[in-house]
Design a protein that fits this description.
CATH class of the largest domain: Mainly Alpha
Number of helices: 3
CATH topology of the largest domain: Helix Hairpins
Number of domains: 2
Shape: elongated
Low-confidence stretches: none
Strand content: 25-35%
Order of helices and strands: EHHEEEEHEE
CATH architecture of the largest domain: Orthogonal Bundle
Length: 155
């Protein structure tokens, strides 16, 4: 699976990976060593907490490696077309203008003031290629829904 990321998110994930594989592992090893000094490991809460924390960190490292090994850096469009890296403001058919919602089309690792929507989700894939003023339809669990693209802007 190819992970499409903005340049900013790619850099942030690379920095997080570097930090966890260096400083993070050293800190985790020190915590485990300190907890071992407290005696019996079977009833040592600090030791078990440190081991759990270390396990979570190693899981995050593996997750980051999986993303970074299969990454494609995407640049948002400059012509307003909805694509990965674009924030799109939509209005559901029948809603009042004040109920418009904004979504960043992108990977779950993206950080945005808007909700992040996967480009492979039903609405996300329907919006791809649309421009402001377009109305798109997509299949939802309760039937077909229509949304109007009000505006787009790069993240």
């Amino acid at each position: 699976m190819i992970h499409k990321l903005s340049r900013k998110t790619h850099e942030r994930l690379c920095q997080e990976h570097a930090d966890l594989t260096t400083r993070g592992r050293i800190v985790a090893a020190e915590k485990i060593a300190r907890a071992r000094e407290h005696g019996d490991l079977k009833e040592n809460g600090d030791y078990h907490a440190a081991k759990d924390e270390h396990g979570h960190m190693e899981g995050r490292i593996r997750q980051l490696e999986s993303i970074l090994e299969n990454v494609e850096i995407v640049e948002p469009s400059t012509d307003g077309t909805v694509g990965v890296g674009m924030v799109v403001k939509v209005l559901y058919d029948g809603d009042d203008e004040s109920m418009a919602e904004s979504y960043l089309i992108g990977h779950i690792e993206e950080i945005s003031d808007s909700s992040v929507m996967s480009p492979t989700s039903p609405l996300g894939s329907a919006l791809l290629g649309a421009k402001p003023g377009d109305v798109v339809e997509y299949a939802a669990p309760n039937g077909k829904l229509k949304v109007k693209v009000l505006e787009t802007q790069p993240q």
